[in-house]
């Protein structure tokens, strides 16, 4: 299967378990890989036949900044569901990194892969 991807999408938002995290925004970075058949888009050369990575990026930013959640797990499950429901994607991998969370680590985060059920 072919792949449309987004790398290191930066989103500044409220996220976290602790009270101090609910008061100031932090940066999250998303890597997204979407499995899709690109042949129709390649044949037509029409963006309407493609998974538009710009539209997906805006959807991720809009959802991530709309309503705060505590866990990265909650956020990536919601985003995977949105992508599989709203876009022509058969499988999605989402990795979210929260670099400010653990001082001694370069970054930490969560990665999931979800498949569309027919
Ligand atoms: N598996 C997870 N572990 C932790 C999360 C999380 O979302 N998923 N979140 C936190 C805190 O919000 C942390 O980022 C604050 O430093 C801790 N562990």
TrEMBL record:
Matching SMART domains, A to Z? FolB (SM00905)
Which EC number(s) are documented for this chain?
4.1.2.25
Q: Which pathway is this protein engaged in?
A: Cofactor biosynthesis; tetrahydrofolate biosynthesis; 2-amino-4-hydroxy-6-hydroxymethyl-7,8-dihydropteridine diphosphate from 7,8-dihydroneopterin triphosphate: step 3/4
**Which key words tag this protein in UniProt?**
Folate biosynthesis, Isomerase, Lyase
Q: What GO biological process terms does the UniProt entry carry, in alphabetical order?
A: folic acid biosynthetic process; tetrahydrofolate biosynthetic process
- The kind of enzyme this is, by top-level EC class, is lyase
Q: Which GO terms describe its cellular component?
A: cytoplasm
Q: What SUPFAM superfamilies does the entry give?
A: Tetrahydrobiopterin biosynthesis enzymes-like
The record's Pfam families line, in alphabetical order, gives: FolB
Recorded GO MF terms: dihydroneopterin aldolase activity; isomerase activity
Residue intervals of the Dihydroneopterin aldolase/epimerase domain: 4-114
The reaction(s) catalysed by this protein are: 7,8-dihydroneopterin = 7,8-dihydromonapterin; 7,8-dihydroneopterin = 6-hydroxymethyl-7,8-dihydropterin + glycolaldehyde
InterPro entries attached here?
Dihydroneopterin_aldolase, FolB_dom, GTP-CH-I_C/QueF
Report the superkingdom from the record: Bacteria
Q: Which protein family is named in the record?
A: Belongs to the DHNA family.
Free-text function comment from the UniProt entry: Catalyzes the conversion of 7,8-dihydroneopterin to 6-hydroxymethyl-7,8-dihydropterin.
Q: Which PANTHER family match?
A: DIHYDRONEOPTERIN ALDOLASE 1-RELATED
Name of the protein this chain belongs to: 7,8-dihydroneopterin aldolase
**Organism of origin:** Pseudoalteromonas tunicata D2
């Amino acid at each position: 299967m072919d792949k449309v991807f987004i790398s290191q999408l930066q989103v500044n938002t409220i996220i976290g378990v602790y009270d101090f995290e609910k008061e100031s925004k932090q940066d999250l970075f998303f890597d997204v890989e979407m499995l899709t058949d690109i042949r129709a888009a390649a044949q037509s050369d029409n963006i309407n036949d493609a998974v538009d990575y710009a539209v997906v990026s805006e959807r991720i930013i809009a959802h991530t900044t709309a309503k705060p959640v505590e866990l990265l797990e909650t956020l990536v499950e919601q985003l995977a569901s949105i992508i599989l429901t709203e876009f022509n994607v058969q499988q999605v991998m989402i990795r979210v990194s929260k670099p400010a969370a653990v001082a001694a680590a370069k970054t930490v985060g969560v990665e999931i892969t979800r498949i569309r059920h027919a």
